[in-house]
Design a protein that fits this description.
heterodimer, A: mainly alpha, B: alpha/beta, Rossmann fold, five-stranded mixed β-sheet, three-stranded antiparallel β-sheet, 7 helices, 8 strands, globular, nucleotide-binding (chain B), ATP-binding (chain B)
């Protein structure tokens, strides 16, 4: 090492050039794919141990929770569910909702908990979030697959429109991902974000539209809830599952607008906060 | 080559005020350089190494890396404590695009962890951790190694092995070594720099650097 001469503006002579343009983007994508793959495997291991029941637990937990609530609702059936099996109604609402909330809540510790991995320059905060969120999404998809195919086998009732159902699920995760990025960036910058986010996810539960169909609400309430893109998504999910059995209220363009906006803002926030992270 | 140009770094202190770690520091690390960095506790040696690695960003100035640079090899970072040495090796192999089995074999041979290879890394002694970290980074083959104190903790046998492999590895490559042990500095490095109160002073002669540091 030597002291560089003062007042140098360009790069010193003989310094190799860096790849540029498309080649650099492609290389970056390959690195990101490897990192996310490694993070996914690591996340599975650290959360569930190396036992072979690891992945099973990942989806048994939401399945158990949603099943219990579904059973309770079967016993005390309520009007807001319309004419559909209460158990199925609850699982379709709760299982994705819990995953959504888990993503937002866990985002508050994304940086603190993974700081040591970010000593590897290629591991980005965005990759850590994506790996976690993909795992949550995989788990919930498994829960829904099990419950829906179980119901189909048991009662012969199949989902009304699978692409709508899958689309709604993907939109919900895309929304959670964007919000999660915003929360992760905020929490890495200001400690107070961690304190605020947890209670907020509880307060937000009734406004999520996960627990009841909007059709059975008074018109003003319904219109108020439809400001929340999450409520649209849960309506869309029920539309995909039950079709005409419950009238659904959602606007795909409105949801897409939100999804794109929060993801772009989230990426920008993570980028803005990166240079100020202290290790 | 790592090139850093007018790099400054400060932290905001709680209750106001700023801690300046580096002020307007410039320099070049060329292939084949092996430089030791001396400085008192809290002088900012580890921060400097983290910035060279691209982990932490400077407050102002720029740092360009045009060779593959290791992660900062320091205690307690870069690994997952709840995972075993073997699982950490698999993770490192995957993110650095290396064949998993080759990395595992190399680390088993170099770090000599025996059955501890399958125990969580949090059960490791400081020396074992250092061996694992160095083994993992040597398995990847970087152009430049950034070593922050992990060589200082090994026993004599390990120091000998690390020195041998570093001598092989760093032929034509670069090494930046932070250490409190002047003997290790003389063993591993050809030049040295002293970090004190935000400025980095380079010395062509290691003994001169050690003398300056001792006089601080």
């Amino acid at each position: 090492m030597s002291a560089a001469s003062g007042g140098m503006h360009g790069l010193p002579e003989g310094m190799p050039q860096r790849k540029s343009g498309l080649a650099r983007t492609m290389e970056g994508l390959a690195v990101q794919r490897r990192v996310i793959h490694a993070l996914l495997l690591r996340e599975l291991q650290t959360r569930f141990g190396r036992g072979h029941l690891g992945f099973l637990w990942l989806f048994l937990e939401p399945l158990l929770l949603a099943s219990l609530i579904g059973l309770l609702k079967t016993l005390v059936s309520s009007r807001e569910m319309g004419n559909v099996p209460p158990f199925l109604f609850v699982v379709i609402g709760y299982a994705p909702y819990f995953a959504f909330r888990a993503i937002i809540n866990r985002a508050t510790t994304a940086f603190q908990a993974n700081m040591t991995l970010m000593y590897h320059r290629q591991v980005r905060l965005v990759d850590i979030m994506l790996a976690r969120n993909l795992l949550e999404m995989g788990a919930v998809t498994c829960v829904l697959l099990v419950v829906i195919s179980g119901t189909a086998w048991w009662t012969g009732a199949t989902p009304h429109d699978v692409p709508t159902l899958v689309g709604a699920l993907m939109l919900l995760f895309a929304l959670a991902n964007g919000l999660g990025l915003l929360v992760a960036a905020g929490a890495a910058r200001w400690e107070v974000v961690d304190r605020i986010v947890h209670p907020m996810t509880y307060v937000a539960l009734p406004f999520s539209g996960a627990l009841f169909a909007l059709h059975y609400l008074p018109r003003q309430w319904r219109e108020m809830l439809l400001w929340n893109p999450q409520a649209h998504i849960h309506e869309m999910m029920r539309d995909g599952m039950f079709g005409n059995m419950i009238p659904a209220y959602y606007d795909l363009a409105y949801v897409l607008g939100w999804v794109v906006a929060v993801n772009l803002l989230g990426l920008a926030a993570v980028r803005a906060v990166r240079a100020r992270l202290e290790f | 080559m790592i090139y850093f140009d007018r790099v400054s770094k400060h932290y905001d202190l709680r209750g106001g005020g700023k801690k300046h770690v580096l002020r307007n520091v410039s320099g070049i690390i060329r292939p084949g350089d092996s430089v030791g960095i001396l400085g008192r506790n809290g002088a900012g040696k580890s921060t400097l190494v983290r910035m060279l690695a691209g982990v932490e960003h400077p407050t102002s100035g720029r740092i360009e890396r045009r060779m593959s640079v290791s992660w900062p090899l320091a205690h307690g970072v870069g690994l997952q404590n709840s995972m075993s040495g073997a699982d950490n090796a698999r993770f490192i192999a995957r993110i650095y695009n290396q064949p998993v089995q080759r990395v595992l074999d190399f680390v088993e041979d170099f770090a000599e962890l025996g059955p501890y290879m399958n125990m969580p890394a949090k059960t490791y002694s400081v020396g074992m951790m250092g061996r694992l970290l160095l083994g993992l980074s040597f398995a990847v083959d970087f152009d430049c190694y950034l070593i922050d104190e992990v060589t200082a903790t090994g026993d004599q046998r390990f120091v000998n092995r690390a020195q041998k492999i570093l001598a092989e590895k760093t032929r034509g490559r670069s090494l930046v070594l932070v250490t409190h042990v002047p003997d290790h500095l003389k063993l591993y490095c050809r030049t040295a720099a002293v970090l004190n109160e935000g400025s980095l002073t380079f010395f062509e002669d290691v003994d001169e650097a050690v003398a300056t540091y001792t006089a601080l």
